[in-house]
Amino acid sequence: MSPVSTLSVTPKSEPSRDFKTPISVLQEYCQKLGKTPRYDLTALEGRAHQPQFVYRCMVGDVTATGQGGSKKQAKHAAAEAVFKALTAGLLPDETNQVDDNQNNLHVVRHVAKESDENNPVGALQETVVARGWRLPEYTLAHETGPAHKKEFIICCTVESFKEYGSGSAKKHAKRIAASNMYNKILNLPPEAKDNVTNQSREAKSKVALHELANSLGERLVLSEVAVNSNHKPCELLDSLAKDHNFEVIYKDIDCKTIKGQQQCIIELTTQPLSVVHGCGDSLWEAYSSAASSALYFIKLFTVNSNGSV
């Protein structure tokens, strides 16, 4: 069951303290079930001056999404959708136990004031500073789409951790990446927190890109590498990684391109760190596309370094 709920919110007046928000109603109901709701920011749409947040709420096997002009609106919408889904199949006597909560839901549809949760970038920075870690790094991993409808993917790096965010503006994508990283750090088990050090990103030896490019040049002419070629770019890239002791990390992107294609990102733990994007009709074609782009980037890096064309 995956119901979708979208709230249209029009602020009128502050609700009475007697009324409960959908989030608090769901929280109280879940306490009786012995479960904990989980909220994830899944998308940030619209323009910078009129954003639309999309939150996903999960309670056990029940998942629903909510949309709103602020994070709090979207979370309330998602919470309400999940609550209704959880109580939809109850018997009459069981329904009586939640009638009061249902009656309170509709009166709390107001625009919440901006709070710390609406500034994930600042919250993340405070968290890493408090733990003695290095400040988060944000890089543009990829941008796609026509000029009037760009989609940006931002990579947030904190020590050895990486999280991504996408949006129609770089600022939106950065906020989502920061929010995802913030939630990841908060949910780390105690033993994982203790193992994070300032040297974690240097744990694996990084090979310089020019060394890779020289090795690649000895194997084949880069112009021969293509998604549908017999050279199999993924295999070639993996072979380079094994020979030179670096990692090739494939990460799927949930959202599709404007043309409906699958997307992925490849990270190369080289020096400097490299991130490339790929897309295709299938996930495998997206991998091959990204691998081809990675091989081309490696070769291009050497061409630029040597000053030749």
Automatic annotation (TrEMBL):
<dbReference type="GO" id="GO:0005634">
    <property type="term" value="C:nucleus"/>
</dbReference>
<dbReference type="GO" id="GO:0030422">
    <property type="term" value="P:siRNA processing"/>
</dbReference>
<dbReference type="InterPro" id="IPR051247">
    <property type="entry name" value="RLC_Component"/>
</dbReference>
<dbReference type="InterPro" id="IPR014720">
    <property type="entry name" value="dsRBD_dom"/>
</dbReference>
<feature type="domain" description="DRBM">
    <location>
        <begin position="119"/>
        <end position="187"/>
    </location>
</feature>
<dbReference type="GO" id="GO:0070920">
    <property type="term" value="P:regulation of regulatory ncRNA processing"/>
</dbReference>
<feature type="domain" description="DRBM">
    <location>
        <begin position="21"/>
        <end position="88"/>
    </location>
</feature>
<dbReference type="Pfam" id="PF16482">
    <property type="entry name" value="Staufen_C"/>
</dbReference>
<dbReference type="GO" id="GO:0005737">
    <property type="term" value="C:cytoplasm"/>
</dbReference>
<dbReference type="InterPro" id="IPR032478">
    <property type="entry name" value="Staufen_C"/>
</dbReference>
<protein>
    <submittedName>
        <fullName>RISC-loading complex subunit tarbp2-like</fullName>
    </submittedName>
</protein>
<dbReference type="GO" id="GO:0070578">
    <property type="term" value="C:RISC-loading complex"/>
</dbReference>
<dbReference type="GO" id="GO:0003725">
    <property type="term" value="F:double-stranded RNA binding"/>
</dbReference>
<dbReference type="GO" id="GO:0016442">
    <property type="term" value="C:RISC complex"/>
</dbReference>
<keyword id="KW-0694">RNA-binding</keyword>
<dbReference type="Pfam" id="PF00035">
    <property type="entry name" value="dsrm"/>
</dbReference>
<dbReference type="GO" id="GO:0035197">
    <property type="term" value="F:siRNA binding"/>
</dbReference>
<keyword id="KW-0677">Repeat</keyword>
